[in-house]
Amino acid sequence: MVYSGYKRFAIKPRSGKMTAEATTDIPEERKNPSRARRSDAIRNEKAIADAALHVLAEHPGASMSEIAAACGLGRATLYRHFASRDDVVRAIQLRAVEAGARALAAADLDEGNPVRALRRAIRALVSVGEGYRLLSREPALDPGVLQNQPALAGQLVALILRGQSEGALRDDLPPEWILQTTASLLVLALRELDAGRLTKEHAAERVADTLLDGIATETRSAG
Questions:
Q1: Per the confidence metrics, is the pTM higher than 0.70?
Q2: How many C-beta atoms lie closer than 10 Å to residue 143's C-beta?
């Protein structure tokens, strides 16, 4: 299978053994070769995830062999980094979470009305998610990943707690419940985006409206 529309990603080979030198000015990676090898592995895995993102966006059913070929790797090398295709998908998801955390950091969530800040957060995450919407086709997609990623989840939880303390958000719901509900709605929005049933703007609005206003015609249902 021939892939087009993206470049091959350069994967750095793992380093060899450190040789002794008659100097105390030895770079950190020379002093700690195991740490340097691990850093190389992390960089390689991120590069593989980025390459796989392009492959799977173009060919959703791409196999491990096809992903390896697109990365310029042998199949065995790819398996040294990822035991399965699901592991590759999870690595892409983590890259999406990292991008989401950066987007939230730029959204000034600690400023202004908490509800409006939460809407900004949702717009930022949907905007990032648009570039990763292929994940919505993958059974390995895990909405619970947010709770295990403090760089992203911490910003949302802090905003939720601020909203609760200021009386803008209900304080009878645990922040973790609100966080997980938000994540599940975002996954649904990605699926609608991927299917072409919603635009990015409408997807963000629908997530925010559902989360903040629910489905009842009043703030609290009469039942």
A1: yes
A2: 17
